[in-house]
Design a protein that fits this description.
With 416 residues, this protein is α/β, with parallel strands linked by helices. The chain folds into two domains: 178 residues, VC0802-like, CATH 3.30.2130; 232 residues, Rossmann fold (3-Layer(aba) Sandwich), CATH 3.40.50. The protein contains 13 helices and 17 strands. The strands form two sheets. Strands 9, 10, 11, 12, 13, 14, 15, 16 and 17 form a nine-stranded mixed sheet that branches. Strands 2-3-1-4-8-7-5-6 form an eight-stranded mixed sheet. Strand 13 and strand 14 form a beta hairpin. The longest helix is centred in the C-terminal third of the chain and has 25 residues. It is elongated. The two termini are 41 Å apart. The relative contact order is 0.10.
Amino acid sequence: MEHDSEERYATAMPSYCAFLGHQPHISIAELSAAIPDFRMKKVLGSSVLLFESKSDIKTAELNTLGGTVAIARKIEPDVTTLDDVPDTLWKEVKGVTGKITFGLRAYNVPPARVHDLYRRCKGALKDHGRASRYVGTERTPAASVLLQDTGLLDGSHGCEIVLLRDDDTLWIGRTVAAQDVNAYAKRDMGKPVRDTRIGLLPPKLAQILLNFGHWLARGTVGNAASLTVFDPFCGTGVIPMECLLRRWNVLACDLSLKAANGCEKNLDWIRKEHDILKKDVWSEVWKQDARKPFELKKKPDVIVTESTLGPTLEKPAALRLAQTLKAEGEELQEEFLRNVAATLPGVPVAAMWPVWFTSKGTVRLEKVWDRLHTLGFRVAIPAAVDLEITGRPTLLYRRPGQYVGREIILLQQSKK
């Protein structure tokens, strides 16, 4: 009887669809880490994920997910055929005043069929006496910024219907959230201090790493809305900036005084841009070598950081150079983790290590990996991660054309 009850509960959970970013394996792992009751159902191709959750996921939630482009929620009751789409659209938008705007986002539906549905939907709305226009085409759905500008996400002017076909199954929902591309661009390019001489950390990737950090800390803080995050390789402050946007307290340091000062300026800028007062969310930035003992007045809930990646490369690294950079990285990471274990016992670590791509293959940190247990750490990984991609319980991030990638390492301390 208990099993039957669990099955009924599972099927009653709302069904969602996520359109994934350029690194779908990381996007899925992030969703499983960020949504406590996440239940993965199916991956369509490599870019669309069906999952279930009791959470009411909307734009505010998506704005903290760096790896997901858009999210749709299934329309209930089930819509069984594409012929039902015009009537379904009308039910979703009939409360809208004025001219209705709508769009279609399809997967595995022929473009000619989508074109016909656009025509039929517009005709059905006309039959109800409503003027309408549509955004997107049969081949390219509307850009996320257009969905926001036309009021399709909050339903004020219409909606976007999502059509997913898999074998003989049809899933129909409406888009409830989409990434704010302009906001990302402003944080990335508009901040006062940028250091292009080093590998720039994208804000989306910083968000992903913070979600993994929150997942690691959940054992001690539960689902607490506020955290204290420590970034000991802060650079000019991409991770600390994303922390402030979530109203999470920040501790940050860097070996470079110039970088630490740049981090301070960027944090002041993000506070002004988003009206984040220091009395509500505090931050502290200083110059320090991350291999030296941390003497913090307040113990952080989690360490979230991207350590030194070394020089940027415009072509595959020579194997000898990669081995030299690897040896330097091994020493740095071992000294850093030894310091964390000694001065911040029990604090989990979400970090990114460098990975070099050479003409002879991939070069990753190995020595420090083999010593993790001796240093007092154990590896953690969200359940949805496909371990066959990296060969060890980590996540590999690489942009096209890059020859220095990032390996995401999630660590719990085995000794407290």
